[in-house]
Amino acid sequence: MQSDDSPDDQAPPTGSDQALWARAAGGDIAAFGELFGRHAGAVWNYAYRLTGSWSAAEDLTSSTFLTAWRRLGDVTLVNESARPWLYTVTGNLARREQRRLGRFSSALSRLPRGRVVRDHAEDVAEQVDADRRLRVVLDAVATLPRAERQAVELCLLGDLSTAAASAVLGITETSVRARISRARGRLRGLLQDATPTVLTTEEP
């Protein structure tokens, strides 16, 4: 972040994530609230794509912004945007939680389903099917080598640009694209029947 004595022409634009972050670090709760409003939806979507669970996505979103609040003073934003850093935190928290709960997942999936109110049965069935298809994708992504998995999570699941992902990962944009290309090749065979849209979109 820019220091107070930086030249005016180097100061972050008013209203940018970087400016809001600096104000929040100085105790401006409203600025942090604006950051939350700007990015909470995207963080939730990313968390849902990582976990396949609405409730887990809500918990991860809360934990991500709690981490952000605690670390306001020691974080440098990438390209003046908070989103790449927020996604990194979300991904780390999601993997930690998945490791903790992994041994219970298969048991929970075998629990009998409760009766569904008839008026909502169709909506519930559609959501269950969507969750199932997403879980197939997530299970396949989890088998990728770490470098390729990170690129897929950031660019294809998180909708980050290759430029933002390259800054997060500390590699070139060309390397990001190469990792995504290799990952698509590996996943194509695993997901022949699933044909998930999230993995067939053009690279950002």
UniProtKB/TrEMBL annotation:
Residues 136-187 form the RNA polymerase sigma factor 70 region 4 type domain. The keyword Transcription regulation applies. Keywords: Sigma factor, Transcription, Transcription regulation. Residues 35-103 form the RNA polymerase sigma-70 region domain. InterPro entries: RNA_pol_sigma-70-like, RNA_pol_sigma-70_dom, RNA_pol_sigma70_r2, RNA_pol_sigma70_r4_t2, RNA_pol_sigma_r2, RNA_pol_sigma_r3/r4-like, WH-like_DNA-bd_sf. It holds the Pfam family Sigma70_r2. It comes from the Bacteria. GO terms for biological process: DNA-templated transcription initiation. PANTHER family: RNA POLYMERASE ECF-TYPE SIGMA FACTO (PTHR43133), RNA POLYMERASE SIGMA FACTOR RFAY-RELATED (PTHR43133:SF25). Belongs to the sigma-70 factor family. ECF subfamily. This is RNA polymerase sigma-70 factor, ECF subfamily protein. It comes from Amycolatopsis mediterranei (strain S699) (Nocardia mediterranei).
